[in-house]
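Students often ask why inverse folding is considered easier than folding. One informal answer: many sequences map to the same fold, so there is more than one right answer. In these notes we will look at a single instance of the problem. The structure comes first.
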């Protein structure tokens, strides 16, 4: 039953997507990129006990590659330490994280796809 908390929160976050997140979603949904399935506003549970669950909501997630994509807007300039700690924890758990700044999406949306495909190709080489 507790899983419903994360799912409901993720659903609410989908409604609050930024324009850059919506642009990215249009480019990666429906297995468009390298036939990989992506989910948006995906809850990732870090730890769970009877009393407490710790989870993060990834902007986008590809289960096949354990790939988290974060679209970083201005808020991320103010929370760099938080983002670094979060990324380290997720990396330690085996997740791969790609952060793309809003500017890359806004200057030319194709840039985000180039960054993503290069990152995926590097992951596949591991």
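Output (designed amino acids):
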């Amino acid at each position: 039953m507790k899983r419903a908390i994360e799912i409901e929160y993720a659903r609410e976050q989908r409604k609050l997507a930024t324009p850059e997140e919506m642009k990215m979603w249009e480019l990666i949904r429906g297995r468009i990129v390298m036939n990989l399935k992506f989910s948006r506003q995906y809850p990732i549970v870090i730890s769970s006990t009877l009393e407490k669950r710790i989870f993060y909501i990834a902007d986008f997630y590809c289960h096949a590659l354990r790939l988290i994509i974060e679209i970083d807007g201005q808020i991320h300039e103010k929370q760099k330490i938080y983002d670094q700690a979060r990324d380290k924890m997720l990396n330690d758990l085996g997740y791969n994280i790609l952060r793309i700044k809003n500017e890359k999406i806004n200057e030319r949306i194709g840039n985000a796809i180039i960054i993503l495909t290069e990152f995926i190709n590097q992951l596949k080489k591991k």
